[in-house]
């Protein structure tokens, strides 16, 4: 019996039933089952206890620091990541391949090593921290240090999502805009950025998602001071060390809900951009 569902597009390759069954099974085992177990364990507390935990001042402080700093770091990476991608794609210069390879370093570098390296730089006795200290600027062991760590781990997501799309942009469109009298800024704003906007939003979402769950590179430079530089993932670890498993899963469930809502909103904006400009 042939499956003629309206959502199945014609294809020369058979195997829709097998592939969709494998996809559902794989996603259920790898993604849905662990998340379901997390929500089930958190539900053992009851609604009132979860709400009380969510409104606890320490939990709110940790969630605020994690999500606001992650959003700020991802937004900060957008213009600089776009600029780096532009330079790597549009210009040929000595050492370009070397700099292109460096972009992937945060992917390959263990997060603990990144945290130690950043702390060595920005601590009060570090190379940069020692220079900033006389001006009363403390970087490490503050939210600024958390922000810098999240910028470090999130930059490659912006560059690598924008880079291939930028390489495929037809330069004739820019030349046509120039012949019509558009200046460089007008050409970038009206021709280039609309084409890149879906890729930029994708990179932003990936950088934000990575930053929210980042742990290894942050705990060293953050100082982990409650109400000051304590991130939500660390609060979960602390509750686990205190054998408060229900509390840890409740905080994780709260993070999951906030992350899902934020990423859903970003994806809706991204889908609208794709529909408007017709680019992936």
UniProtKB/TrEMBL annotation:
Q: Which GO terms describe its cellular component?
A: plasma membrane
Q: Which SUPFAM superfamilies match?
A: MetI-like
Which stretches make up the ABC transmembrane type-1 domain?
Answer: 63-266
Does the entry feature the keyword Kinase, yes or no? no
Q: Where in the cell is it found?
A: Cell membrane
Q: Which residues cross the membrane?
A: 20-40, 65-89, 101-123, 135-159, 188-208, 215-238, 250-269
GO molecular function, a single term: ABC-type sulfate transporter activity
Residue span of the signal peptide, if any?
Answer: none
Which Pfam families does this chain map to?
Answer: BPD_transp_1 (PF00528)
**Listed Gene3D superfamilies:** MetI-like
Protein topology in the membrane: Multi-pass membrane protein
Q: Which UniProt keywords apply?
A: Membrane, Sulfate transport, Transmembrane, Transmembrane helix, Transport
KW Transport (keyword) present: yes
Where would you say this protein principally sits, based on its record? membrane
Q: What does this protein do?
A: Part of the ABC transporter complex CysAWTP (TC 3.A.1.6.1) involved in sulfate/thiosulfate import. Probably responsible for the translocation of the substrate across the membrane.
Give the similarity note. Belongs to the binding-protein-dependent transport system permease family. CysTW subfamily.
Q: Which PANTHER family match?
A: SULFATE TRANSPORT SYSTEM PERMEASE PROTEIN, SULFATE TRANSPORT SYSTEM PERMEASE PROTEIN CYST
Record note on quaternary structure: The complex is composed of two ATP-binding proteins (CysA), two transmembrane proteins (CysT and CysW) and a solute-binding protein (CysP).
- The protein here is known as Sulfate transport system permease protein CysT
Please name the gene that encodes this protein: cysT
